Amino acid sequence: MRITPLLVLVLLASATQAWTADFVITGCQNLTQAGHYSLDRDVETNATCFTVQSNGVSLHCNSHSITQTRGILESNAGFYNPSFDYASVYDCTFQNFAYGIRYHSVAATLQGGNIENNIVQNGPDGLWVQNTDGLQVRNNRLYDAHFTSSTNSLVENNEFTLENTGSVYLQNSDANSFRANSYAASYASIWLKNSNSNTFQNEVFSSLVQLEKSSGNQFTACNIPALLERESSSENNVTNPLSFPTLNIASDSSARVDYTVRARVLRHPEQTPIASAAINASDASGNAFGPALQTDSQGYTPWFKAAAFNGNTAQNNPESPYTLLATANGYQDGSATDEASTDHTTTLILLLPGATPTPVPTAIPTPTSTPTLLPETIEGDEQPPSADEETTGSAEDAANPKSTNGAADGNGADENGAAGATTSNLYAGAGSVNNLNANSGANADTTGTGQQSGYGLEKSSNPNAGNPLADNIIPFAAVIAVAALALALKHFHDKGGKQDKQIRTSLDLLKNPGSEPRKRKYF
Known about the structure:
Elements: H1 5-15, E1 23-25, E2 29-31, E3 35-39, E4 43-45, E5 50-52, E6 57-60, E7 65-68, E8 77-81, E9 88-90, E10 93-95, E11 99-104, E12 110-111, E13 114-116, E14 119-121, E15 125-133, E16 136-138, E17 141-142, E18 145-151, E19 154-156, E20 159-160, E21 168-171, E22 177-179, E23 182-183, E24 188-193, E25 199-201, E26 208-212, E27 218-220, E28 226-230, E29 236-239, E30 246-249, E31 255-267, E32 278-282, E33 288-294, E34 304-311, E35 322-327, E36 334-338, E37 344-350, H2 395-399, H3 468-471, H4 473-490, H5 492-495, H6 497-511
Parallel strand pairs: 1-3, 2-5, 3-6, 4-7, 5-8, 6-9, 7-10, 8-11, 9-13, 10-14, 11-15, 12-15, 13-16, 15-18, 16-19, 17-20, 18-21, 19-22, 20-23, 21-24, 22-25, 24-26, 25-27, 26-28, 27-29, 28-30, 29-31, 31-37
Antiparallel strand pairs: 31-34, 32-33, 32-35, 35-36
C-alpha cells in the first residue's frame, strides 16, 4: 500500500486521539489550566483566538476551523503562547490570521511543546517561533515558517507552501533538525542567517537554499536546485544531493558537495568476497583522501565521502573521479577509477599472484580466400625469374608489341629503352625463350637495361652485346629451320602452296635472322 502525505496526516491524527479531554470548549478563550482542551465546533473571531496562560496546555481542534474575520493585517494569532513551557496545539485549521501559530517569548526560552497536524492558510506568517528549545513541529501544512533564536527543534514532514517570496527563515537558530519537508517558494525555499549546525535530511527544495554568515550546516539526500553562500559562510556540506546543485559561493565562503561511496573487493575468478583488504582513495590529481578503510567478511568497506565540489568558485578541489587501490595478503594489488554518485559501490577484483584475468573472447573475422595460383610451364633451358625482379605490369602492356610501361616479363623495349614488348616481339629486351635477339636493351639504338624476367636470358649492359647463350641461338635456330624445311619438303606435294609459303618464311629467317617477317608467328 502506498502511503501518501494525506494518509500520513490521517494516521497521525488518529494517533493523537490517544488522550482524554480535560476540557471541552465551544469557542475562542484563554487556556488557563494545564490539561487537554477539546474544541467541538468551527469558530470565528475578530481577534486572537486561543492564548496559553499555563504550562502544560494542549489544544485539540479535532479538524475544526478557526477563522479570523477582521483581516490579516491585524496583529492577531490563532494560537498564541507568550511564555509557557510544554504548550501544544493539534489538528486545527487557522485562516486569515497574521500569525496562524505563534510562540513568542521575549525573556525566557520556552521549553518543549508540539505543533502537529495543523493547517494554516491565508496570512503573512503561518508559524512564528522565537526563543524555544526542543519544540517539535510535525505533519503540518503551513504557508511559511519563521524560527528565531530557536534550538534543538525537530521539524518533520511539513509542507511549506508560500510561493510568492520565501518558505522558511532561520535566524540565530542552531542545532535544529529538518527532515522530509517540502518547500514551494519563488525565491528561497529556506534562508539561514547566523544559524549554524542545523541538519536537513531528505528535504525537497523547489528553489534556492541561501546561507548568510552560517556555518556547519549539513544537507543530506536533499533536492537542491541551487545553493548560495555569502558573508563568511563555511563548512556547509551537501551530501548525496538528488541532483548536483547550481553553486554560487562567495570568495570569503566555502561549501562542500560530496557523495557517499564504498568499495567491495572480490576474488578472481570466483568473485567471492575478500575480507581484511586495505583500501586507499585518491583524487584525480593523486592526492589521498578519506579514512583508512578495510573490508568486512562480505568484502565491503564502510561508507565514506568523495567530494564533487570543495571550496568556492575560485578554488575547487574535487575528489571525483576517484581511484581506489586495494591490497590484500596473497593477492595482486588492484585498482579502479569511478565517478562519485549517491550511495555508490565500486567493485575491485583481485588476482592471485601470477594469475591473469580471463580474457574476453574476441570475434575472429572470416578470412578472405586467397586465389590459387597455377605455376607456369617451364620449357627446356628456361630459368624462373629471380626474387629481386619487378613483377608488376598491366594486361594492356603485355598485349602491346612496343609498350613503354611493360613489366619485367620478357617484354621487348621501345625506342626509349623501357622494358618492352610481348613475348612475340623479336626485338625483346630482357628476352623470352622465344625471342631470337635476346639481349638487355633490344635493338642497337636503344640504351635501356633489360631485366631477367619472363624466364628470359641473362642481362647485358651493352645493347649490342650478346651473351654466350645468345651466341648459340643462331646455329640452334638453323637446326630447327633445317628440320622444318625437311618436313616441309616431305609434304610439299600434298600441301601445295601452303607448304611453299612456310618454306619461304623459314628460308628468310635463316638468311636474315634479325629481320621481322611480314606477319609474325610464334615459333
